[in-house]
Structures are given as structure tokens and as C-alpha cells.
Write a structure and sequence with these properties.
two-stranded antiparallel ribbon; 3-stranded antiparallel β-sheet; mainly alpha; 5 strands; 49% helix; 12 helices
């Protein structure tokens, strides 16, 4: 049983009389702005989704390691192929039946090896999911016309990783044969499973991740971090850095793998540079002309007075204000003041020293007593 009123959140009322309020997700901002807590919450959600996809892919890879599906060989047979393609005279035969097998020297080595291979296969199988989650976390900070690259980014990322992994798989047998033949006259190669798979998986992973470098470069150009003008004069430095990167990252340290990785990266980076060149030209055509004008010259305001912002003249107060007549003030009687005709009171004159005012008829002489000073008109004023 449920009840709701307009303007209030929905409440699901249970039979016991308790009510539970459904939490509604806050509406997303149209411009993509989010608070710090919203960013952390979204990052947690996308990491959880990526981990779930990675776990499912790991389970599939773990089962695929020893199981063949129709014409598709098992993952273990596929990974063992480059080692078995080496000349049989250069590798040891542990079965005495001319079978290509690897050596295992510890009880848990095969289980751990199978888990590692399954995890790598899970990362490759789940790459469309976690690459999309990574891009979806970044796109809210981009403009609307930049978000259209979402599908293109995911497809290119998966394609480049698979191409790099396949290239590493097809050249690993050449690198192995080069390394094994260096001392074939005095020793025979008896590789154990742990060393061989670690070498193979490291090479596949390095090639796959390295092939994402041009994609990252193009992504930075789309976001406006780097431009073609910043990179076009640094081609020689980039080539040297790519050769150093290939020499350091290739696990076998054989020259063939290093050269193949370096040349592949140079071609891919050059393609990324051409993409940045095309994208900068397209962006420059769509850029308004007023954005290229200096800030000091961008305004079209005139320095001459006039227009809306011009100061207005101050009006003459005598032309607008009307003088109103004021009423005469009432007479104020104060001590010692004599009221004159016309309503104006004049103060009683103060006698100068040495002058004696004549006595008027009707004036009474002030009484004097012993020890008191005679009174005068000056006292009345005070």
C-alpha cells in the first residue's frame, strides 16, 4: 500500500505502519559541473563496474586456459605456440616422446600461472567495459562536441591494444630463437613454465599498452592540452625517446623486439601528430575572430564622451526649485531683554565701567545689606 501527495517524496508504507522514503537521485547539471562528493561517488561506481567486468573476464580466461572451444584452441596451447615453434634441437625434451612441454618445479606454480594468464585474459576481454568507464568519467569535463568521440575512443583503444598484443605474439618466437641460439653449442634451453609465461605476458602487455600512446596523444589534443605547434618541432626528440623506451621496456632485451616496438611506435605517433594537425585546423576554422584579438584592443568603446555611459549635466537648482516664503519667527523673551515695537526684542545695554545709568521714575533701589555686593544691570544679563 502506498500513498503520495504532490510535492512530497514517495513513501512506501509497510503493513506494520512504518514508512520508508525512497531516495531520488539528484538531477544532473546540464553543464556537467559536480561537487567533490559527487565525483568520488561516480568514481567509486565506475571502479566497481570495471572490477566486476574484470572478474568475469578472469573467470572466463581461467577456464579457457585448458579448455578448447570448437576450432579455437585452449589459451595454454596458444601461449605455448611461440616456444614450440623454435627448432626442436634448441630446446630440451622432458617427455622423451618429442613433445613440446614446459618444466614445472613447484606444486603451486601451475595454479598461480593459470591465475596470472586468466587475469591478463580477463583484462583484455573486459577492456571495452573499463575503457568506456574511464572515458565516461572524463567526458563530463569536455564540451558537447568533444563527447562524440566516446565510441571512437573505445573502439580505437581496444583495436590498438589487440594489434599490439598480436604483434608481440608473432615476433616473440623470433626473439626467443635469437636468445636461445646465443649459447646453443654449450647448452640446451629447458625453460620452465613460470619464466616463459612471464616473459611472453610481459612482452604482450608492453606492446599492447605502448600502442595506446598515440591514442592518449590524440585525446590530449582533443581536450586542448597539447597542440600540433607544440609537437611538430620535437620529432627528433620524440624518436630518440621512443627508442629509449623500447630498449628499456622489452623484457628479453633482444634487438629485434626493441626495433619492432620502436618503429611501430614511431609510425603510430606520426599518425597521431597528423591527427592533431587536422584537428587544430578544424578548430581554428570554427573559432570566432574576436577570440584572437588582444584583450587591450578587443573592446570597441570610444574614448570620447557620449552614448549611454556619458555623464549627464547637473541641473541648475535655481531653475527647478521654488523658493517658499518663510514665516517670521515669534519673539523670544529672555532675561534682561526689552521688547521693541515690531516684535523684535533688543537686549538691555550693558553699562560700561565708570558709567552710571540714570534712575528712572518708578525704579526701586536695590536693597543692600552688610557683606553683599551692589546689584547692577550686568547681573541681570548674566
Amino acid at each position: 500500500m502506498s500513498s503520495s501527495t504532490p510535492g512530497s517524496p514517495r513513501r512506501a508504507v509497510s503493513t506494520a505502519g512504518r514508512s520508508k522514503t525512497k531516495r531520488r537521485k539528484p538531477p544532473k547539471s546540464p553543464d556537467g559541473t559536480m561537487s567533490l562528493s559527487d565525483h568520488i561517488r561516480e568514481l567509486r561506481t565506475r571502479v566497481i563496474i570495471s572490477l566486476i567486468a574484470f572478474s568475469i573476464g578472469t573467470v572466463v580466461g581461467f577456464a579457457w586456459f585448458q579448455v578448447s572451444v570448437g576450432p579455437i584452441q585452449s589459451l595454454g596451447e596458444i601461449l605455448r605456440g611461440p616456444y614450440c615453434s623454435v627448432d626442436p634441437d634448441l630446446r630440451a625434451d622432458f617427455t622423451m616422446r618429442d613433445e613440446c612441454r614446459l618444466l614445472v618445479t613447484s606444486p603451486f606454480e601451475m595454479f598461480l600461472l593459470r591465475m596470472k594468464v586468466g587475469a591478463l585474459a580477463g583484462a583484455v576481454l573486459a577492456s571495452p567495459v573499463w575503457l568506456y568507464q574511464l572515458w565516461a568519467f572524463v567526458t563530463p569535463g569536455l564540451k558537447k562536441n568533444e563527447r562524440k568521440w566516446t565510441v571512437t575512443f573505445v573502439v580505437l583503444a581496444v583495436t590498438l591494444f589487440i594489434v599490439g598484443a598480436c604483434l608481440a605474439y608473432f615476433i616473440v618466437d623470433i626473439g626467443l630463437e635469437f636468445l636461445i641460439t646465443m649459447a646453443s653449442d654449450v647448452a640446451v634451453a629447458g625453460l620452465n613454465a613460470h619464466s616463459y609465461f612471464r616473459f611472453l605476458l610481459a612482452l604482450v602487455l608492453i606492446f599492447g599498452i605502448s600502442f595506446e600512446v598515440p591514442l592518449i596523444l590524440g585525446l590530449l589534443n582533443i581536450m586542448g592540452v597539447v597542440s600540433y605547434d607544440q609537437l611538430k618541432d620535437k620529432r627528433r626528440i620524440i624518436i630518440v625517446l621512443l627508442f629509449i623506451f623500447a630498449a628499456v621496456m622489452t623484457p628479453g632485451q633482444d634487438p629485434f623486439s626493441m626495433v619492432v616496438l620502436a618503429l611501430s611506435l614511431i609510425l603510430l605517433v606520426e599518425g597521431a601528430l597528423q591527427f592533431t594537425r587536422f584537428n587544430d585546423k578544424r578548430r581554428k576554422k570554427q573559432r570566432p575572430d574576436w577570440m584572437d584579438v588582444d584583450d587591450e584592443h578587443a573592446s570597441t568603446l570610444s574614448t570620447q564622451p557620449g552614448g549611454v555611459d556619458a555623464p549627464q549635466p547637473i541641473a541648475d537648482p535655481s531653475a527647478t526649485a521654488q523658493v517658499r516664503p518663510t514665516a517670521p519667527t515669534a519673539p523670544v523673551n529672555s532675561a534682561g531683554a526689552i521688547s521693541q515695537p515690531g516684535g523684535v526684542s533688543q537686549p538691555n545695554p550693558i553699562a560700561q565701567p565708570g558709567q552710571v545709568s540714570p534712575s528712572q521714575p518708578g525704579d526701586q533701589e536695590p536693597s543692600s545689606s552688610y557683606g553683599s555686593a551692589p546689584s547692577s544691570h550686568f547681573d541681570d544679563v548674566l
